[in-house]
Amino acid sequence: MFKSKHALFFVKKTVFQLFYFLFIATVYYELVNSKFESLPDFDKWVLVGQMLFFCLFVFIVNVKFFDKELFVEKNISKVLLKNAVMISVILGCLFYFDQYLSINKATDSRALFFYHLLFLLFTLAAALYYLDFINYLQNKSAIFRLIKEKNKFEVDLLKSQFTPHFLFNTLNSIYSKCHTSSPEAANMIFDLSNFMRYLIYDCSTHRVLINKEVTLIQNFIKLYKLNYNAQINIDFKHKLYDENQRIAPMLLLNFVENAFKHSQIGVSNEAYVIIELATDHEFLYFKTKNNKMSFPNKLEKGIGNQNTINRLELDYKDQYTFEVTDLKESYEVYLNIRL
């Protein structure tokens, strides 16, 4: 019937809201009708209409504007304080409207005030419950999507096992043939084999040891230097608080690769890349800095850091900070992650 889950989700939310406000209107009318029988029908419907309007206002304000403070900032006291101010203003408006329509003169103003307050607080509770339920459904949907993607990745990984196995056997054969005739070439093949083995096998786990990511960066630098005979200026400093700390795999290498790609390493003798990595008992601190090319690099195009940032959102949502300093002659990346 519905073309997508998003359409079904939208219909469910709409039906909930319609039934809720129909319920509010019905109950409020019955209360007014039984409590203030002497009021003309027009005045009764005016009371129902204004009550429905302000309840809808409270509901919409909370759903549209306070969801971030509730679920991202997790500041419930701030939300309740804002609602207290808003409801106080609404009660003042309702009292003014009732005075203007002369409804208070024919009714018990204290009972009317109590009804107004009761329904506004009830609507506030319904809005907060609605927000919590919607957030739960969205998180559940996101988890199912990630599980589905993970299962697909694992299946694809199993399908691709044959090719890496063949590749490593071939590299081992080449390594054994080169070991005596060309030791330097053999070491290059050995480093490449270790680099690829880590990418294909070790990175399939959810978390890896940070010291393995350090080794990965070191091997990447070593392999990169093989392309150039001249000395190139690459400085990698690292200091780990605990080598058994773990991190999502392949998060840092993309920043390193981009630093190499967009610097003048191998082109200019003044080019440089600086990489710094450190951890304490709780955080990882990572920085890359490189000079920028003085001419546009038309051949080197890629998705940049965005893919890694998307992974950070999945693996470390609200637990990382990422900053970029883009100057005329240099480019710096700063990344902090709560481990």
3D structure, described in words:
- With 339 residues, the protein is an alpha+beta fold.
- 62% of the residues lie in helices and 12% in strands.
- The protein has helices spanning 5-35, 41-65, 67-71, 76-100, 109-159, 162-181, 183-200, 210-225, 253-262, 306-315; strands spanning 208-209, 234-239, 246-247, 273-279, 283-291, 320-326, 330-338.
- The strands form 2 sheets. It has a 5-stranded mixed sheet with strand order 2-4-5-7-6, with helices on one face.
- The radius of gyration is 32 Å and the shape is elongated.
- It starts with a helix and ends with a strand.
Which terms summarize this structure?
single chain; 339 residues; 5-stranded mixed sheet; 7 strands; two-stranded antiparallel ribbon
Quick synopsis:
The chain has 339 residues and is an alpha+beta fold.
SSE-based structural type: alpha+beta
How large a portion of the residues is in β-strands, by DSSP E? 5-15%
Alpha carbon gap, first and last residue:
45 Å
Q: How much helical structure, as a percent, in the residues?
A: 55-70%
Radius of gyration: 32 Å
Mean pLDDT value = 78
Name the assembly state.
single chain
Q: In one word, what is the shape?
A: elongated
**Total number of beta strands:** 7
Described by strand count, sense and barrel closure, the largest sheet is:
5 strands, mixed
Sheet with most strands: strand arrangement: 2-4-5-7-6
Number of helices: 10
Give the low-confidence spans: 297-303
